[in-house]
Structures are given as structure tokens and as C-alpha cells.
Amino acid sequence: MSEKSKVIHEITSTGIVAIIRATNSEQLIDVVNALRAGGVTCIELTMTTPNALEVARQARQMCGSSAFIGVGTVLDAETARAAILAGAQYIITPIVDMPTIELCNRYSIPVAPGALTPTEIVRAHQAGADFIKVFPTSTLGPTYLKDLRGPLPHIKLIPTGGVTLDTAADFIQAGATALGIGSSLISKQALANRDFETIRKNAAEFLKRVREARAAG
Description:
Blueprint: H1 3-14, E1 16-20, H2 25-37, E2 42-46, H3 52-63, E3 68-72, H4 77-85, E4 90-92, H5 98-106, E5 111-112, E6 114-115, H6 118-126, E7 132-134, H7 141-149, E8 157-159, H8 168-173, E9 179-181, H9 188-192, H10 196-216
Parallel strand pairs: 1-2, 1-9, 2-3, 3-4, 4-5, 6-7, 7-8
Helix pairs in contact: 2-3, 2-10, 4-5
């Protein structure tokens, strides 16, 4: 199995991409460890993190093959290339930027551009996106995702924004391939208090709810 196929398989099988917006690199490494301890292996480090690319490099070295480190909030192809050279195993963007999709395809790196409307989603898919980050879903919720899945059952959708423990199962049953989860998994309070045990417990609980929702069909 190619490296790209491994990443796609891991995101699809685990069903969770944890989104980290830490305030410093030391904190971020501790969060990565807590997530791994809870069973979450697909971790997105956002470009809004200080020294994001250096942290991505450190995380890759630390995790080895035990986690899959992606870089998110990527806005252009230049940043995507820098992230890939720093070790990013996948790229996530909040927008549909065609040069970024093309570059990721050239490097055989999975890419999940952010899109909301059916037209944006189909354009990104046709350009070679491996997943679509449906963003933001905080207002439209699981019902909107289910509506999208009707005409677009072949496209892998990752709803992001507004995914909580209460809505996770609904998004999965609406047809989500995986869930992009940020503050409800890694809260500002937990970060401020260095409460990494709560982050570990949250990770384990989200995984449980994804599995139960899939089993329920």
C-alpha cells in the first residue's frame, strides 16, 4: 500500500481528524501524545500555530508510524509545498484553491479542500481532492450533510465546525466519511490547564461514538 493510500485508509477507518490550535510548540506535542493515548491517530496542525511547520516536523519525528500528521489552514500552493517538505502527510484547506490541489496531487499527498456548496464540492472533487472538508457545518448541521450525500454519494465528506459529542453520531449517520473536530475535542480550558487527561478521554469517547454510529448503520 502506498503512503498516500495508508493515510486515506487511516482517516477513513478511524473517522476522526483532530484539529489542534495550540499557542506554543511544547503544548502541541503534549496534546499530540494525549490524542494518541486516546486512540486518535489523524492529527491536523493548523498554520495558525506559532512555528507550525517546525512543530509539524517535530511531531512527525516523534510519532513515527504511530500517527498521521497533517497541516491545515493552508491557503495557497506555496504554503502547501512548505508543509509537505516539513513532513506533512496530508493537507487540509478552508477553501477550494486549485493550485494547492494540483500540487498535492503532484506530490501524491492527500488533500481535503474546504467547500460548502454542491458546486464547490464537485469542482474540488473533479480537480483531484481526496476528501472534501465541508466547512463550516456549525450552522447547517447533519441534515445539510445528508442532503449533500443524496446527489453526491461518491465523494468523501469530512464535516468540520460544530461537531460535538452530541452531534458526532448524527454526522456519521448522515454520511460523513470522517469528522473534523477541534474545540469540542481539545478545549481552550483543557489547554490552559494543561489537562491532557481530559483530552485523552475526549478522544476515546469520540472514537467510541463514531464506531457505535457506524455499527448502527
